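Many introductory courses stop at the sequence. We go one step further.
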Amino acid sequence: MLLKGAFIVPHPPLIIPEVGGGRQKDIQKTVDAYERVAGQIRALKPDTLVIATPHGASYGNCFMVSAGQGAGGSFADFGAPQARIEVRYDADLAGRISRLAGQEGLAIIESEEGNAALDHGTMIPVHFVHTQGLDIPVVRISISGLPAEAHHILGRCIARAAEELGRSYVFIASGDLSHKLSKEGPYGLSAEGPVFDQRILDAVRDCDCAQFFGFEENFCRKAAECGLRSLQIMAGVLEGKKVRSEVLSYEAPFGVGYLVAAFYLSEEEQDPYVTLARRSLEHYIRTDNPLKRPEGLPAELTDRRGGVFVSLKIDGQLRGCIGTIQ
């Protein structure tokens, strides 16, 4: 299994010691959970870290994958220019993701423009990984203003790209939850804020990524969330895989929801039949052409001929089926 694990992490700048100056103890649950995640990533030994961030260069009509050999940044915007992070990029994986996304009809660009400096949504998770002595290449992907399903498709492209290159990776969905959880907080309180966070917590505890797609845009705007699209990309990455989830911590001492959660891969392999059926159906619907046989299929799908029957369900309701005994 090339995907080693997926994690949801927040990005409060004060969690960096040079920024927090001791205030990070006010979010100690988050600090402890972050350190646990970083230790798990070290143990998983991935080739690459793929990070979806809401604070990179973002566009309303397309995704952006950071290009080039690497980038660096500091926390100067938060009063700590001495705290710096440098990363190397996995250019091959970034390029393959872009190519596959383009084939799926997604607008996506590879660009170094606006990326001379890393954003804090990327730097904070990388900081914790680096404290574990792990320095691995990064793919940095900025969310977009495109619909939720486009983010879902991009996640599937990430998984396919890694499969095609044989690249093991950990996926990180960087994002805070609602910023409107307390009257005393910097952004105030909205009725939607606590509801949003509870729905995300329920989805993670239920290990049901489909719940990340049931939010109305106006509701999300009132909740002032920042991490939902990163979660929607993660849902695509995890699609077809057998996982279990764990909430490692959740707190909101400053009126902003900080969630740290993990999705662990089951020892069982993902079902190759379901994965291929879904990819084939979606490709045909979008392109009106049959899917060419993907690389890397297991022998059970290529070395013997057999009948097949595919059923399509939406919210548990049968919407279509077709098959053959040939």
